[in-house]
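Need tokens for this chain, all 191 residues.
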Amino acid sequence: VIDLVILNLLFIICCIPIVTIGASLTAMYSITLKMVRNEESHIIREFLKSFKQNFRQGTILGAIAIIIGFFITIDLRIIAMGYDNLKIVEILCYAAAFWSYIIFLYAFPISARFIYTTKEVFKNSFMISSVNFQWTLLLILLNVPFVGMLFYSGVSMLLLFTILLICGFSGLALIQSFIFRKIFEKYEIPR
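Here are the structure tokens for all 191 residues:
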């Protein structure tokens, strides 16, 4: 539990300049994927090493995720202003948001575990998430309680932020890493 608290703190600190969220996510998944394989050692040293190694690609992935999220949000806000004749565009925006979410759900752990170009990360994220759609749905369902707490009430939102500050991000990444481990085993070359 202490390791998760330390990892969560490192993740939050490294996310402070918004542009490094991707690199921080990749480093966190690098640690949690090692934790589920009993390969982890010193959390701080390994996190900083992974952050440095994956800085460029993680930052690019994070920036692309932020840009896509920004444009989808803007499009949906414009449509919500009363443009009823844009219903097809609204459906396309929700479909793009759904698939973008799924691709980025896989992109950071794939980048943490495998050595690929950014283009290959996106291609493999799409392919692996599609082939393993039942696991993808489970990964999505793991986030539902967090979203529910965010919108349920002010007290639940405060509780959510408290959990996220203590060990929420790293705890969720660890739970997801058990699933990613099962998925990635099919694609790893045995040693």
